[in-house]
Structure formats: C-alpha cells, structure tokens
Amino acid sequence: MSTSASDTAAQGRVAMQQTRAFRRPSRETLIRWAPLLVLIALVVVFTAINPAFLSLRNFGRIAIASTPALMVAIGVTFIIVMGSIDLSMEGTIAVCACVFAYFFLSWGGTLLSTAWVAIPLTLLLGAVLGLLNGLVHVLLRIPSFMASLAMGFVGIGLAILITRGEKFLIEDEVFRGLVTYRVLGFPIMVYLALAALVVAWFIQSYTRLGRNFYAVGGGEELAHASGLDVRRVRVMGFMLAGVFYALAALFAVGRLGVAESVSGANFMFVSITSVVVGGVALWGGIGGVWNALVGVLIVNVINNGMVVIGLPDFLQDGVLGFLVIVAVVLSTDRRSVSFVK
Amino acid sequence: MSTFIRDFIEREKMNRRNFLLASAAGMGSLVIPSAFGFDRARAQLVDPQIAWSYRDRASPYWLAIVSGGETFVESIGRPRDSLVNLINEGSSEKSLADIVSFLQATGGNCAIACDANDSPNARPIVEAVAAAGAYISTIWNKTDDLHPWDFGDNYVSHMTWSDLKPSEDLARALFDAMGGEGGVVHIGGIPANNPAIERLQGLRNALVDYPNIELLDAQPGDWDTQKAADVMSQFLTRYGDQIKGVHCANDVMAYGALEAMRAEGISGIPVTAYDGNPEAVDLVMKGDLLGTCFTNPHWGGGITAALAYHAAIGTFKPSEEPPEHREFYGPTILITQADAENFKKEFIDATPTYDWTDFWGPTNGQIQYPASN
Asked: Which residues of B are less than 8 Å from A187 in CB distance?
C-alpha cells in the first residue's frame, strides 16, 4: 500500500514496544485499547438504563447472536489486514449452508451417523470458494472489491439453484445441541467459536502466513521487493477467509436449524462494520482477530441494547449509524493517515 | 436494520427511474400499436396465446403461481409448457418491455396474467395491452386510481389480498390461547411494506376487544429469520416472563422466534405466523405454531390466467360484470391445529382440482380504497 500505511505499521510496532515497557500510556496505547473501552462504556450505559441488560441470560443471548458474525469477521479481518476487501461472504455462507444441509440430510440427518462428514466437507467447500475468489482477484487482476462482490452473487445464485427456493430444515437434536446444550450459561457453539478465535489468533501471530498478511498490508511494494510472493499470500488469505465463512455457515444453521438461499443475508454489513469498529484499519496492516471479537461484540451489544432499553424502532437505524461513527472515531488512529479514500 | 435503509433507498431510486421510463414507454406504446396496425376494434380472440408475467423463479410463492397457470392451460387442452413465462427479475422496465415484445410477437392475439412488479408500472402495461387489443388480468400491484372498468373489456380484472382481517383473526386466536390476558409482542416486516403495516394493524384491531392483553412491543424483523431470532431474544431480556404470546408478520420470522425460545429452553408460549408455507403448516400440526394464514397462490396463478383467457375468447364480457368481479380480494384461509391436517392433505400433499371457470367463487369482495381516493 502507500508509504503512509507502512509508517503507520512502524508506529504500531513502536507503540507495542512502549506498552511492553510499561511507560506512561501513550496516545497509541489508548487507541489500541479504545474499542474495548467503547464496549465497556456501552455495557455500562445500557445497564444504567435497564439493569436487566447486565445478566448472564442476556450475555448468553448476545453471545449466540454474535457467534456466526464473529466467524465472518475473523475471516474478513485477514483480508482487510492485507489491505484488500472481501464482499463474497453472503454468497459463500449461503452455498456452504445449503450444501451442508443437503448432504447432512441425505447422509442420515444426524451427527451420530455418517452425516458428520458433511462438516469437514463444508469447511473444504469454503476453502475452495475462497480459493476461487482469490484466483479471480489475483489472476484476472480484478480489484478484490469487485471480484469478491461478483463471486458473492455467483454464490447466492448457486444457493438458489441448490434449494430451488425451498428451505432445508435440520431437526437433529445432537447437531442442534450447538445452541440448546449449555455449559456455565453459554451454549456449546459459543465455546467452539472461541476455540476458532484462538486458532485464528495463532495463525495471525505465530505462522509465517499470518505475519505475511501484515507485511502485504503494511507495504505491498516493500514486501514484494523483499522477495515475498504477494500474489500467493493474497490467494491463501482468501482461502483462509473462506474456511471461516464456512464455519459461520455451520453456526448459522446450528443456531436456527434452517439452511436457505438467504442464510448469508446481512453478514456483509455486520462483519465489515464490526471489524472496522473493532479497530482494524481498512487501509491494511493494523489490527487483528481480537479487534474483530471486540467489534462484533460492540455491534451486537448496540443491537441488543437498543431493544432492551426500549428505543423506538424508527430511531434504531439512526442510532446504530451514529454509534458506529463514534466507535470508529474513537478506535482508529486517523492522525497518521495522510488521506482517506 | 441496514436492509431497511438499503431497501428504502433502492426502492425510492427504482420508483423514480421506473416512473420516468414507464411514462416514456407508456406514451410510446400508445403510438406504436397503431403504427403497426393492431386492430383495436377486435371483439374477441381466437386461440390466443397465454402468458404469465412475474418476478422470479426462486421463491416458493411464484413457483406456486406458475404451477397454477400451467394447470389452467392444461385444463383447456394445451401442453403445460405452452404457458409463456415473462420473468421480470424485479425490474419494472423488463416487465413492460417483455409484455410489449409479447404483444408484438402475437400481434395482440394474447391473454396475459401479470404482477406489474410495482404499482406505477401497471398503468403503462395495461395501456399497452389495451391498445394492442389483447386482454390482461393483474394481481398485487396497481395504483389506486387505475381501474379495469376504465379500459372497457381489455383490462379484465385485478386481484389483491388484504392482510388486515386474517391478521386480526390470528391475533384473536392468539389472545384466546393466552387466556385473554398477559403481554404480547409483535415481530413485524420491513416497516414501510404494506403487508407489514396491515398485519400489525390487524393485531391492534383485535386488541380493542381484549382489555387485559397488553402489546408490550412491536419491532421489525425485516421478514428475516435471523433478525427475528435476535429481536425475540432481546424481547426476552426486556420483558422476560411478561411475554405470554408472540404475533409474527410471516412464517419465516415465526421460525426465528421459535428458535430463539428453543435456545433458551422456553416452550409453551403461543406463536402465530402468516403465509401458510408447508413448513409452517407442519409446525401448526405439531403444535409449535398456533396458526398461520394461506393465500392460495396456486389458485391465484390459475384463475388470473383463466380470467384473461376467457374474457379474450368471449366466454364472458368483462364490461357487463359488476365492479366486485373486476377488482376483488383473493382468498385467505386461516390454518389452526384443528384444520391443519385436513389443510395439508388438501393443499400440500395433493393439489386440489379447481374449476377454472368459477372465477369469483373463492374471492373476498370488492377492493376498498382509503377514503382519500
């Protein structure tokens, strides 16, 4: 990307060193933690208006609503860190959800039979769709914005073709245990999502691929000049994102027991908003999966809180938009960016 | 939430564009047919082609409409695939352009069944059809100032469905199941959509007779299962045990509400839906849903084509029919547990055989307009 972006990355590293040394909290440190502070502030405000907000039951509800969105947000975080964008998630989720339900139902319809094979198959399918997405972007040299948007439409079309406008209902008690079986007040799917988050964090921080995402996002020309195969990193990034979209599809089906061509609806807005609100910079190189987690929680706490405090529905869209802007203002360091596009 | 804004902006954009295009095309179509020598005076047609113009092939609703149309053409001894499908894919321009092309191709010797995609688009379509001497029956979309009787025989009929009464009846069933007291929540459609407004109003109408029932909250679920599940879980936090009943504006949102309660281990709260999808009927039979409402798209698809066809060949003369035979409400069937099994047998497991010349038997009276019109 631009020189300013690599400057920003450099500043980020300086900020990290400062934090490690426990010096007086610098402006950068504050900005690093701002999303979490925004989240805590929201919880405090909503609780002050309606104490029912601060209850384990309600946190369980927010967690369930956040789980599929978190998987999508993690996937797209890798792409945004590279300085690209991926808009294919709604299509990928729709195809993955429908293909999963189709095979799950035709191979026995319960996790206790061979139908479990549908799960790894779906993850594989997510990877293949992501791979295609990445190849269209890199090989045909189409901007990721356009390539992924187009692939998303193809996905939705495919899902309509598979379902022919009908829905697949999954009644299996074992699979639905994802949302109905609870440990310490939270459904199983929440713990599985946290495990996926840890895996994503590991990939981001401790693998060469994860570090390469930052190299590409922080300064693509520099990375290329240093001998990094940038095109390969990009394709791998889209593939990895596809796997997380497939996970989102599994959680979405697990949550509602329905797979249909609109299973992916709304995930594009929620995930990208969350990632940005969480402090991942759209210009690349900054932020990571923990920011995605905080961002998803901020968006879902706002959505939940607005109804819980009894905000009239005609105000909710406006308030959501306003709070998103406030959150972005507080949680991204815009001073170091020379221009915003 | 975002869908609301997006839908609204898109709808507004489309409406403006469609209005301009449609008025241009409408004026054009007044000139073109005479230039091509269509015979306006032709009283009735011989063996006219039949077409259905509708939105898409991806939804069960339109699939049912088309299957009705195909069953009708079969009933007059033609193959099912002789029904011409004019699919507009949600575009009013395409809807009008397809119909004008079809009129050209058949030289006006045709009968058309049509949903104009949006209300302003109905006028240019009807004008083009009338100018070509062909026959058309419409459903759902037309403006309040457009009437079949202003076009002699060529604009045969318009059918739409009122959601007020069925929604009110479902609410009454819900309140009775709640024992006539307690709190109810409503999960609605996209707020500006006409069915969303009518279905909430139906609930409000029923509330008048139940002083001990309180409408705790009404929030949009945007016709979406996922959004409805979120809204339901938020209601549970805000109102908890106060919620004794759930009134949903359509079937798929009712699934979301049921799933949100299932995730919490809550059961036994009555829920009503709307649309009468096969999955919803199964849920009514199982007792998970208290009731839903069916608008019989199969019959609607068949009878709309039948009306246009029979007017075209002169079986009846539309201009001699009373207004309630030109503009009328379609049938609505309430489905509760008592009749769900019979309903499933009759309408889902088998498709009933209809008399396609009983044009008005199942209809629900003349369309009423707001007082300002």
From this structure: 263
CATH number of B128's domain: 3.40.50.2300
- Residue A331 · residue A310 · CB < 8 Å: no
Q: Which residues pair with A183 in a beta bridge?
A: A186
The pLDDT tens digits for B37-91 are 444 445 689 999 999 999 877 667 788 899 999 999 999 999 999 999 998 888 8
Asked whether the beta carbons of residue A256 and residue B226 sit closer than 8 angstroms, the reply is yes
> Chain A contacts of B237, Cβ < 8 Å?
52-53, 55, 57-58, 61, 304, 307-308
Helix or strand run (H / E) with residue B30: helix B2-35
| Edge-first strand listing for the sheet containing B135-139 | B84-87, B49-54, B110-114, B135-139, B155-160, B327-329
| Residues linked to residue B158 through DSSP beta bridges, in sequence order | B138, B327
Which architecture characterizes domain A68-331 according to CATH?
Orthogonal Bundle (1.10)
Cα separation, B230 vs B240, in Å, equals 14
* Residue contacts between A and B (CB atoms, under 8 Å): 98
Are B238 and B250 contained in the same domain? yes
pLDDT of residue A1: 41
Among B233, B218, B119, B117, which Cα is nearest to B167's? Answer: B218
Q: Are residues B144 and B88 part of one domain?
A: yes
- Hey, is B154 helix, strand or coil? coil
Taking CA B274 as the corner, what is the angle to CA B271 and CA B279, rounded to the nearest 5 degrees? 80
Interface test with B, best of A313, A314, A319, A323 (most B CBs within 10 A): A313
At B170-189, the pLDDT tens digits run 999 999 999 999 999 999 98
**ipTM for this model:** 0.84
Q: What are B219's strand-pairing partners?
A: B187
pLDDT > 90 in chain B, percent: 66
- Do B35 and B146 belong to one domain? yes
Find the domain containing B194 and state its range: 164-294
Looking at residue A73, its pLDDT comes to: 97
For A223-266, what is each residue's pLDDT tens digit? Answer: 999 889 999 999 999 999 999 999 999 999 999 999 988 898 88
Q: Round to whole Å and give the CA distance between A83 and A92.
A: 21
User: From the CA of A263, how many Å to the nearest CA of chain B?
Assistant: 8
Residue for token pair 């996905």: A155
pLDDT confidence of residue B373: 42
Residue A173 has pLDDT above 50, yes or no: yes
Query: How far apart are the C-alpha atoms of B267 and B287, rounded to whole Å?
Result: 11
Question: What pLDDT, on a 0 to 100 scale, did the predictor assign at position B233?
Answer: 95
The span from the CA of A190 to the CA of A212, in Å, is 29
Distance of residue B96 Cα from the nearest chain A Cα, in angstroms: 24
Instruction: Report the pLDDT averaged over residues B261-286.
Output: 92
Across the interface, whether the CB atoms of A303 and B3 are under 8 A apart is answered no
pLDDT score for A282: 84
CA distance A89 to A271: 9
Rounded to the nearest angstrom, the minimum Cα separation between A270 and chain B is 9
Beta strands in A237-339 (DSSP E): 258-259
Is B290 in the same domain as B197? yes
Touching check for A63 and chain B: CB below 8 Å? no
The rounded percent of chain A whose pLDDT value lies above 90 is 65
